[in-house]
Design brief:
Blueprint lengths: L1 E4 L5 E4 L3 E5 L17 E9 L4 E7 L3 E8 L2 E5 L4 E4 L3 E6 L4 E7 L6 E8 L9 E6 L10 E5 L7 E2 L4 E8 L4 E5 L5 E13 L3 E3 L4 E5 L3 E17 L3
Amino acid sequence: MINMYPAASRYTADHGWLKSNFSFSFADYYDPSNLNFGAMRVLNDDFVAPQEGFGMHPHQEMEIVSIVLSGKLEHRDNLGNHAITSFGEIQRMSAGTGIFHSEFNASSDETLNFLQMWFIPGESNLQPSYETSTFNVLQMRNQLLPVVSSTGGENVAKIHQDMTIYLSELDAGQSISYTTTPDRKIFVFVLEGDITINGEAKLGKRDSARISDIANVQIEASADARLMLIDICDI
């Protein structure tokens, strides 16, 4: 089953300095039928004005991944971690038993756009931790590049859940295939461009697809495209 979610179907919040698009229930947006997709709990597409951001706030029992699409994201936490990341880098934070952190736009003149995703951890009471990792954006071209996974690895952030996040940049007319097992779920999010999944589901910029009970997917770009694919366990 392929369920498509147009970009316009997302809940939008505008706070002036922050414009957010929520793919799942979050903050003031609550829909009991849209709480999660397997272990995936949150996908926020955030635009933050220069020198603005989120002050110190707590998290607990959640795996949090931030992917910068444009601009610079500055992170600080009560463990003493400090990092500024841009496109080509990943921030992964395990909130575990509890952590405080802040997130700000480190630029004085450029809007920050980043994806923040929350995943239900595979185990509770983890020791809080934080890491940054770097990937080669050139390796995204016409293939799926793993950037976050449960096994980690060189240039791959390690997450405490049975899942993998891939990024890809497809040239128009090119296609990629992905195979998993029917008991798993696949989430596809189009960052730029236009794609078709399995010859039937057509998605444009910021559209997404939630795929269940299908082991094989083929993604073809009808225009130059950039996308994220997440292979994730059910819960």
